[in-house]
Amino acid sequence: MEETAGVTIAEFEAQAAATDQNPDDSETPLLGLVGEVGSLLSAFKKKRRDTDAFFGYHESVVEELGDVLWYISRVAKHGGTSLAEVLGCATGNTSELLHFDAFSTSDSADEGALLRLASEAGDLAKRFGEGAYKQNVNALRGDLVKLLRPLLQAASAEAVRLEDAALYNIRKTEDRWPTVRVFPIPKDEGLHIDEQLPRKMRVLIYERKVHDTKFVFQKIGGVLVGDRLTDNHLPPDDYRFHDVFHFAHAAVLAWSPTTRALLKIKRKSQRELDENQDGARAILIEEGLTTWIFETAKQYRFFANTPKLGFDLLKNVKRFVRGYEAEELPMWLWESAILQGYAVFRELTEKRSGAVVTDMEQRRIWFEPMTNDERRRCGREACR
To answer: Are residues 169 and 122 in the same domain?
Structure first.
């Protein structure tokens, strides 16, 4: 990881507090700490087993170490101490130094550090369960110190700086749970309207049987767009309505190479964007991502009872689009696009036809029944 501007421990702890989704729960941070220590140890184990076949090893260790620091901060806060105090005691540096790089890791690796780290995490959970830390901040601080020492030695052995881990964690948590939500400016802002994704759109989507096969058709302004779609899957799963997800990407993310292709609004005036961001490979990436999410959504009733998405799913979404402009879009916005898209999908599969309405300014997509006139224009009987 390239070096970046320093972060103070106070800034890190403030960020941890701001992004804690259960600020009054003292048990969840402890469970999270034990879990993240396990994930860190798993990364170390995979490196020993797979050697150079473990791709992304250093980044994985940096991420897991940052998560461990986040949970230590929250456990310490709930117990009446702080990450800064614990770090100071663990390193013997009790002066009032504020940056992570003031707390250097051990100069030499210790072969027993990983086993001690696992042992200390287990002991911490055991003693928490026994109530050893209630009204006893010194006991908690002492056990966190015992956990941190082998953690610092393990980080040193892998040449991972605490500051890098802290910065990585800040970026990740802000990406997922921002303190302030600001919509990114659309990448096509300022281009000719012929090369912009529609800021508002109304798409009529309906199912019609042709020669005993059910197809889904789509119309904008009375004109068919895209191909007639089937599920291409056994058993049928209504994937033929899946273009709604691309429209959700366009409306909420202000990104969708597939929608650009459907509406013939690629950014032809920008050669690099046209070839690399709007071209066939980018379209395949979006289609592949849509299919992958769909297979996950099927297991959860198409997110019918899912008010928020798991961190792992959103991290994998970001990995899927790595190298494309969509990589810059925050996780919280991806979550909104996915959940809104599936809400409309569920309406469509229930009603089998309707109008999909988008508003990029509000970053919204929603379902409306067709008007009688719209139903006639789609060759369907008007409602009586």
So the answer is: yes
Domain termination residue (choose one: 145, 176, 207): 176
Q: Would the CA dihedral through 54, 58, 60, 64 be positive or negative?
A: positive
What integer best gives the mean pLDDT of the chain?
A: 90
Tokens found for residue 269 = 């005036």
Domain count, the chain: 2
Alpha carbon distance, N-terminus to C-terminus of the chain = 64
Does residue 64 surpass a pLDDT of 90? Answer: yes
pLDDT tens by residue, 67-108: 999 999 999 999 999 999 998 888 877 654 456 765 554 444
What secondary structure does DSSP assign to 93-151, as a single string? --S---BGGGSPPPSS--TTHHHHHHHHHHHHHHHHHTTTTTT-HHHHHHHHHHHHHHH
- Residue 183 is assigned to a structural domain of this protein: no
Rg, C-alpha atoms of the chain: 26
* Residue 46: predicted pLDDT: 78
DSSP 315-362: HHHHHHTTTSGGGGS-HHHHHHHHHHHHHHHHHHHHHSEEEEEEETTT
Listed residues 176, 207, 241: the one ending a domain: 176
| Strand ranges in the chain using DSSP code E only, listed in sequence order | 200-210, 213-220, 223-224, 353-359, 364-368
Total-model pTM: 0.89
In this structure, the answer to whether residues 89 and 238 fall within a common structural domain is no
| Structural domain harbouring 129 | 9-176
What are the tens digits of pLDDT across the range 264-306? 999 999 999 999 999 999 999 999 999 999 999 999 999 999 9
13 and 100 assigned to the same domain: yes
